[in-house]
Amino acid sequence: MSTYPVTPIVELGSTTIQRVVELEKWDFPPELLFELSPELLEEARREFDWRSVDPQTGKLILSAHTWVIRAQGRTILVDTCNGNHKQRPVFGNVHLLNEPYLERLAAAGVRPDEVDVVMCTHLHPDHIGWNTQLVDGTWVPTFPNAAYLMSPVDFADMTDWYDHGERRFELDHDLARSWEDSVLPVIEHGLAQFVDPDHVIVDELAHGVRLEAMPGHTRGHAGVLIEGGGRTAVATGDAFHHLLQLNHPEIGNLADRDPEQAQATRRGLFERFADTDTIVLPGHFPAPSAGRIVSRGDRLEFRFLGQD
């Protein structure tokens, strides 16, 4: 079986984007991600290689990774995966994870104290985990000099649920723990910034990094549009999760807050970026993760960088 390809550094003029992985192969029984008919599952097995569907078990495979953007002297992280040592007995087989994520950041030239911005596309556990790390039994912000950007809508929704919602399922307890260990410490240290979905992070010398609303998975879910050197890339967070959704945008993730809006967001993104030079940076596609959406007859495919 092939090894995972190395993700190239995306260059947009002087702005660069690099992928730092936490989990390269994060597999899920299909029914934990989507409602799939046997026909759609068979299509996934037929259409996609071992990086996206396990040929033996039929499990769907995701990746957990961070996009590192360097623009105009600023270092920006988009989503921080699951995190180590976190109590997640139910959520996605990441209970008490112990991955060398910080070492991988260091290999990419990123020191935690040099990070300027941590962008949380939304506040689900697998996108906020490395917001904090365990130090002497206490959860503290991993990136002590960074502004952690969060949606005020998502924060309000999660605060209301945490304060007043029922814990009807075991997963609810994992979600509550993620709030306690990965969000509240950032708030307590005064590092959170609540920003609108069109917030601009960088706007200098024809280089831009700004947020863009991509609602549905959560009400405040946002992606990141990156521009430089006359080129564009877009980090899409959890607007879509798996390659199967390219030709079946009606397939929603079971965690979508507003399934109808999430489907509209997916369709809009696919239509907008198909057959353009825009580099798409999904939150969970397998290595190398970055690529372009291209037409193949009446279907879409994701052409990973390096396949051109």
List keywords for this structure.
31% strand, alpha/beta, 16 strands, Metallo-beta-lactamase, Chain A, 5 helices
Characterization of this structure:
This protein has a single domain (10-304), classed as 4-Layer Sandwich (Metallo-beta-lactamase, Chain A). The protein contains 5 helices and 16 strands. The chain has helices at residues 38-47, 101-107, 152-164, 170-188, 259-273; strands at residues 10-12, 15-28, 60-71, 74-78, 117-119, 132-135, 138-141, 147-150, 192-194, 200-204, 207-213, 222-228, 231-237, 279-282, 291-296, 299-304. Strand 11 (207-213) and strand 12 form a beta hairpin. It is globular, with a radius of gyration of 18 Å.
Q: Taking strands numbered 1, 2, ... along the chain, how are they ordered across the largest sheet?
A: 1-2-3-4-5-8-9
Mean pLDDT: 94
Shape: globular
Name of the top-level CATH class: Alpha Beta
